[in-house]
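Hi, can you check this record?
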Amino acid sequence: MANFIEELYYENIEPQNMRKKKSKSYSREMKILSENEDVLLERLPEEDKKLFFEYVDAWGIVDGESVVDSFITGFKLGARFTYDTFAETESSLLKEE
């Protein structure tokens, strides 16, 4: 990887996919979601299935926006941490309150 920022820009780095192994709790919850969706779809009348899928799609969008916001917030926090660590020259012990 020649240039980290360029690779990130061209979406060759996907932090959400870097975790290779899913935790047991993640796998367990995904199984519950999948099984419950199957049961609900069997029980729901056809007209309610459309409503259910609209709900699922809307929740996916809201959740996606939240994940993006968390990523940006974390990135900014990391940048501030780096700046404070390497660029800030004034000692917090010498500051007058």
